[in-house]
Design brief:
The complex is a heterodimer of chains A (240) and B (79). Chain A contains nine helices and seven strands, in the order βαβαβαβαβααβαααβ. Chain A is an alpha/beta fold and 240 residues long.
Amino acid sequence: MSRTVVITGAARGIGLAIAGKLVDEGWTVAGCDVLAEELQSLAETLGDRFRPFVLDVTDEDSVTETARRIEEETGQVFALVNNAGITRDGLIMRMSMADWDSVLAVNLTGAFMMCRAFSRGMLRHKEGSIVNISSVVALLGAAGQANYASTKAGLLGLTRALAREFAGRNIRVNAIAPGFIETDMTRELPEAVRNDYEDRVPMKRMGAPADIAEAVSFLLSDASTYITGVVLPVDGGLTT
Amino acid sequence: MELENRVAEIIIDKLGVKPEQVTPEAKFDTDLGADSIDQYELIMGFEDAFGLRIDEEEATKLTTVGKVVEYLKGKGLDQ
């Protein structure tokens, strides 16, 4: 029987690559995103094993209700990938409380609420794997990203705390720290900035969303059953 | 089966303790060696077995075997 994985931010970028990869591997993917139209067209291209759920991860009631619907429709949820994330970059002097709060709400509080919503079911079944998509920015920092970097570092704390909380229950919790990855967000950067990014990466190139999907696949699979609480950089050597 | 026995059975199964340890006064943490997540799972076990939801505030008060039995009796489950 097909295992179910819940992915947030599944409509675009890295989340989309993860969803596609896991559907190909035979998972049933509950793809959550605020982008309803994109989700719907994905359901058409990815087929029956991709189930779209329109969800704003900052809305507590909506998270609770969506988790209930997902468990009702797909049965046991084996895995959760917290990928939803936004940026509101700016120097701290110019960073409004709204810029700070909105990034915190999606990237960190959203992940917390998703973990909380699905942990009861995982405990009941005594198995599960959670992957939080952090960032190299959590480890290196980045000028103009005080809010984003704080949330991505916060995800590492969440990962390690839950790894310990669930270690005796066959529920693993890990994080991936992507480096510079080719997505809509990075494609919009000026060429000079992109070149500078590539220069800083020891492998001298940006990564692809598929590189992150491969790492997620590994951390959800039975090939990694003794791995919990780790942060796996997928960054071409950037953090070495 | 009597309510007390059903409760005891769940505790024995979950915590792997001996039946004689499961007295009404036995505290889940100090007497029966349950950590916080064990206690959460016990509450889940009672909820499943008796078909009810125990809210978090109530759950934190159910620290002994006797308190669980009293709570369930209060919910009319000893009929």
